[in-house]
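Weekly modeling sync, notes
Attendees: S.R. (lead), two postdocs, one rotation student

Agenda item 3: backlog of single-chain predictions. S.R. asked that every request posted to the team notebook include the full sequence so nobody has to chase files. The rotation student volunteered to paste the first one in as an example of the format we agreed on. Action items at the bottom.

Example entry:
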Amino acid sequence: MLERARDLLPLLRRGAPVAAVTVTRVARSAPRGPGATMAVTADGSVLGSISGGCVEGDAVVLAHGARVGGRPLTARLGFSDDAAHAAGLACGGSVDVAAYAVSPEPAVIAALESVVAGRGVTVGIVLAGPRAGTVLDETALRGAVAGTMPGEPAPRSAVAGGDRRRGEVPEIGDLISRRETAVLATAQDGHDVLVLSHAPAPRLIIVGAGEHAAALCRVAAAAGFAVTVCDVWEALVTRERFPAATELVAAIPHEHLAGLDVAALDARTAVCVLTHDERVDAPALAAALSLPIGFVGAMGARGTVARRAELLRESGVDEADIARIRAPLGLDLGGASPDETAISVLAEIVAARHGGSGLPLRERSGSLHRRTPATTADAPTGSAATSGCGIPLQAGAS
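Predicted structure, as returned to the notebook:
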């Protein structure tokens, strides 16, 4: 539901009946992970995708069933390896899904508006029992799952992630703070609750407003980053040059970085220094290294990198922090234009965040999609089975 916030809000505001289908768990290989959502309207319009095409037809049928029946439905959609290849389908995996009606109730509208505004939000959808279909905001979700009043600690056994057999049972507060995309939890009454979360957009702060910065802003914004561009020259930091930027700042970069609210930063935040001016970039890097962020990078030739490191040592930055700077910035893609360089920089940011190797996939073995054990399984268990063509043999009202 949250993934399709921009599509759903106008539909709900004009009273259009709509249902959503969300992936809750992946077994073996599948194109998309937990949290992937498609929405289906009463007239058959489909918004989004949960698998890239393999099981979309089955998901549409499930969505219509949940909307008309007024209760959530769950199913396992997918293929056995042999049947998949016989049908010309190569994914060979399966996905557990939950289908549910989406109505314009206050908790739903508030959650969708938070997503559109770029804020983090978590909601729960009760999948079974007398309250099936009820949408819970964060406060109600904590109470329903943990059986506690807001602010009290939840028992470790209250919540189960994707695989309850493993005993990996985070607190509901942990799930909310981590903004997991989709997790199944068990309420105190024993019924499943689908926990849906949306994290704020990852932040990219670009220091410098040259042509490489303009290209990186375009590419990163298209990839979903909230981009801030900061430069000392007000004439360069303009909306005309950076139409995709979330924020434009004309200020001394290290002072701007030092004044950031650390509560709004996290491990997904990246700072890239592209000024090519050691008077600006060395202090900016020192300020960036003091922040609780996951990525600090700087563009420059190898001689520039060495000179910058020396300036940082002279200013008191220790060797461990200097070693955190990714410089020269970017993966070796061979391109030279600003746009090609921007792609190589963004590729390094993404690889660093997800622990990627940067190697061509053909040079690696194993799963193509890196997913956590809580949302991935080696073999399907405990949900509706499917036929070789992806049609669910059993889809249960939850």
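Discussion: group reviewed the output briefly. Confidence is low (pLDDT under 50) at residues 83-90, 148-170, 372-395.
Action items: rotation student to repeat for the remaining queue; S.R. to check formatting next week.
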